[in-house]
Amino acid sequence: MEKIKLASGSEMPSVGLGLWKIEKEKTAEVVKSAIDVGYRHFDSACDYGNEVEAGDGLSQAMQSGTVSREDLWVTSKLWNTYHRKEHVRPALLKTLKDLRLDYLDLYLIHFPISLRFVPFEERYPPEWFYDPHSSNPHMEADNVPILETWQAMEELVEEGLVREIGVCNFNISLLRDLMNSAKLKPAMLQVELHPYLTQEKLVRFCKESDIAVTGFSPLGAQSYFSLNMAEADEAVIQQPVVVEIAKKHDRTPAQVVLRWGVQRGTAIVPKTTKTERLKENLALFDFELSEAEMETISALNRDRRFNDPGHFCEAAFNTFFPIYE
User: Residue 168 belongs to what H/E stretch?
Assistant: First the structure.
């Protein structure tokens, strides 16, 4: 397993298991199976709704002696309703309690979207609607500066509750503005990255700014078919050039696309619940794509973003809420 080095010198495994969309009843067993086949990096979030179950899996693996806490890299994310300074620490403590951990390796602001606070006892995770039972359910924005949230995140590092902090779904302008004011620079940016959305300028900017990058949805459309957010003909792994390269290396098309991701110098967090796929997604470090193959795959770029609040918030939550142009 190769690792990504952060600005602090910490090292994070290049391949993690993304826990988004894993059913609660499967999560603990999937986490244990992943650890058994070699995963040490887990990408979680309050909003995924399965942190209690993920914590069960992590706890069982540690109690059995399969791994120690120091062997693991666990990431979680601050949800949109907890951006005010007074809510950041309680949100982190709730996540730690659910995951049965004393600290997180990495805590990320999930979106540059601040929504009205929903108390834990009222609804957790709170998701996107402020009041889903109203006659006109919609998102309710809360005007919280990103710097306020970030400074509360910095305090978590000072307390030792979090080792590293970062952001998700930020663009270059937001990163620049945050770095101009922050005491601690973001250690990580997590964004959607795959051959249909290569984000070359953003990845280069982060590299030159010493911000590590993790790509979510590294296979592109695969995570979005079940949500009706991708068309049937948008599967990157069915692209003829990807299939051809896979045959040449005696690998699956998915492995080729994932290898492209890690070979760019980014981490990836593919999701699966199947043991054979867990093994396949981890087996990326005994082959290498040529420069020409990397360029061929990168040339598939369509600037196609599947996870776009500017689209899904209006469709699913009755609120137009773009964060990208």
Answer: strand 162-168
Q: How far is CA 138 from the centre of its chain?
A: 25
CB 224 within 8 A of CB 21: no
Q: Whole-angstrom Cα distance, residue 272 to residue 18? A: 8
CA angle 107, 29, 191 (to 5 degrees): 30
Domains of the chain: residue spans and CATH: 11-219+266-271 (3.20.20.100)
Place of tokens 């009843």: 25
What is the distance between the alpha carbons of residues 13 and 267, in angstroms, rounded to a whole number?
Answer: 7
Distance of CA 162 to the CA centre of its chain: 17
- Would you say 30 and 276 are in contact if contact means Cβ atoms under 8 Å apart? no
Name the residues annotated as catalytic: 48
Q: Please tell me the distance from the alpha carbon of residue 243 to that of residue 115, in angstroms, as a whole number.
A: 43
The pTM for the full model equals 0.97
Span 146-172, mean pLDDT? 98
Q: For residue range 208-262, what is the model confidence (pLDDT) as tens digits?
A: 999 999 999 999 999 899 898 999 899 999 999 999 999 999 999 999 999 999 9
Residue 8 one-letter amino acid: S
